[in-house]
Design a protein that fits this description.
With 222 residues, the protein is α+β, with helices and mostly antiparallel strands. The chain is 18% helix and 30% strand. Helix 3 packs across helix 4.
């Protein structure tokens, strides 16, 4: 049976259109400074936007990435985020930035960014980094040891991590392909959800004794 060209076009568009919305949309104007007061929002493009005529330099500015973050915590690292929440002018631009500080032997634990690819450059120290591919790719582990000046990419949605394997602090900067890439820390999400996931479910999923799961949920609570 001959299939008409119009049907092929419709099917193709139906398959392609969902992917066209997988990343931040391209701007439809020069800029779209995010605004919280909707009474002043006259253009809509991702978030309510300030009237472009009222935009000012401060809407595109952030100061402070020269300051080290506080790594006095359980994972011995700190992520300083600069996204649309810190720079309203990033709205619709599809890009953001983070600074990551690591104490000796600190780590940025396994996590994923649901809305953005990450490209990281190491400035100081030595990092062991990696990501794990999807089930369809047999969960392959890709790792590298980074030295100052080295760059590594973590594809969108892939679980990834960084560990400072040196005896001195480490510093990295990373760009993300979203104005707000989001972050899902695996351990916090699985064992620290609110309300908690039924321990029996996690015990079977991770092949652990249920009491071990209960102990983990107690540790990650809140």
């Amino acid at each position: 049976m001959k299939v008409s060209q119009s049907i092929i076009t419709i099917i193709t568009l139906a398959l392609v259109m969902p992917f066209s919305n997988a990343y931040d949309p391209s701007p439809l104007q020069d800029f779209c400074v995010a605004v919280n007061n909707l009474n002043n929002g006259v253009f809509v493009n991702g978030k309510f936007c300030k009237d472009p005529k009222q935009a000012k330099a401060e809407d595109f500015f952030y100061s402070g990435l020269n300051m080290a973050g506080n790594t006095n915590n359980k994972v011995k690292s700190n992520v300083t985020t600069v996204n649309v929440e810190q720079i309203p002018g990033l709205n619709t631009m599809g890009i953001s930035l983070v600074r990551i500080d690591y104490a000796p032997y600190g780590q940025n634990p396994p996590h994923t960014h649901p809305r953005g690819t990450e490209i990281l450059v190491l400035i100081e120290g030595t990092l062991y980094v990696g990501f794990v591919s999807s089930n369809q790719d047999n969960n392959r582990l890709f790792t590298k040891i980074l030295h100052p000046g080295d760059v590594f990419v973590f594809p969108i949605g892939m679980i990834h991590f960084q560990v400072n394997i040196g005896k001195t602090p480490a510093v990295a900067f990373a760009g993300l392909s979203s104005q707000n890439a989001g972050v899902i820390t695996i351990a916090d999400t699985v064992f620290g959800s609110n309300p908690p996931i039924n321990p029996e479910v996690l015990a079977q999923a991770f092949q652990l004794d249920v009491n071990v799961v209960k102990d983990l949920e107690a540790k990650f609570k809140n």
